[in-house]
């Protein structure tokens, strides 16, 4: 049984103090930090860019999992690579050159991820899998934290997991992002998710370590 990785999404926190907050995060529980980069164009919301990622890296040893919700990532990918995250995930819908961008990320020694919105058929990225280390399946329309989980994501995870399995690409990881909580985490894990992003469910009430411990317990209990 593979270990499930939990990636709390920091946009659900108070971003003005996140550099301090991360010092209290237990690296034994929190495997990754999910960074939602939004450009106000690909998605209606605007967050932060490569400078912020580079700064956050000086405050924590927890690997940074950057989710780029930006148009034409090919125009700025060099800057995100230079910021030194653990992973960089681009959206299939955001570029005409996904393979080239994925290759650039990989060549830099960074995990290369490809993401699909809920309305994009899973099959759209099958031919990109040889260039990707990770697929991020969105279970909400991207842009905001705290939205409700979209149920069809379960079938999409199953379909993708079975394709990856039957194609002999066991190293491609599946990440799920959007509306995950203690009630549905076990189901997304059973359906094939190995990296689970949690925004609201990780930060609500303020005790991130406790929330993540609960989520891991629930994920493993019903597996
Ligand atoms: C949505 C983001 C998600 C979001 C997750 O555009 O990509 O990472 O912050 O937050 P929750 O878990 O609250 O949906
Ligand atoms: Zn995200």
Ligand inventory reads:
D-xylitol-5-phosphate, zinc ion
What order do the SSEs take from the amino end to the carboxyl end, as H and E? EHEHEHEHEEHEHEHH
User: What does the main sheet amount to?
Assistant: 8 strands, parallel
- Low-confidence stretches are none
Main sheet: strand order? 1-8-7-6-5-4-3-2
Structural class: alpha/beta
In what range is the share of β-strand residues? 15-25%
Total separate domains: 1
Global shape: globular
- CATH-scheme architecture: Alpha-Beta Barrel
Radius of gyration in whole Å, from Cα?
16 Å
How far is the N terminus from the C terminus? 10 Å
Which topology does CATH recognise?
A: TIM Barrel
The helicity comes to: 25-40%
CATH class: Alpha Beta
Number of helices: 8
Number of strands: 8
Task: Please explain how this structure is put together.
The chain is α/β, with parallel strands linked by helices and 223 residues long. It is 30% helix and 18% strand. It has eight helices and eight strands. Strands 1-8-7-6-5-4-3-2 form an eight-stranded parallel β-sheet. α6 links the parallel β7 and β8. The termini are close together. The mean pLDDT is 97. The structure holds D-xylitol-5-phosphate and zinc ion. The site of D-xylitol-5-phosphate has 22 residues, from β2, β8 and α7. Zinc ion (ZN) binds next to β2.
Condensed summary:
This protein is of the alpha/beta class.
């Amino acid at each position: 049984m593979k270990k499930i990785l939990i990636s709390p999404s920091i946009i659900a926190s108070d971003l003005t103090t996140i550099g301090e907050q991360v010092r209290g995060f237990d690296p034994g529980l929190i495997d990754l930090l999910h960074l939602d980069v939004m450009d106000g164009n690909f998605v209606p919301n605007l967050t932060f860019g490569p400078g912020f990622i580079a700064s956050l890296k000086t405050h924590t040893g927890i690997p940074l999992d950057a989710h780029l919700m930006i148009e034409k990532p090919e125009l700025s990918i060099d800057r995100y690579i230079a910021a030194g995250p653990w992973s960089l995930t681009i959206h299939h819908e955001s570029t005409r050159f996904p393979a080239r961008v994925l290759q650039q990320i990989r060549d830099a020694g960074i995990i290369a991820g490809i993401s699909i919105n809920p309305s994009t058929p899973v099959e759209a990225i099958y031919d990109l899998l040889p260039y990707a280390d990770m697929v991020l399946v969105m279970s909400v329309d991207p842009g905001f934290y705290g939205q409700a989980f979209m149920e069809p994501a379960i079938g999409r995870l199953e379909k993708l997991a079975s394709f990856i399995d039957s194609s002999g690409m066991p190293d491609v990881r599946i990440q799920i992002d959007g509306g995950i909580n203690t009630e549905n985490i076990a189901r997304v894990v059973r359906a094939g998710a190995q990296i689970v992003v949690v925004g609201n469910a990780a930060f609500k009430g303020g005790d991130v370590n406790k929330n993540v411990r609960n989520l891991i317990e629930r994920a493993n209990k019903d597996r």
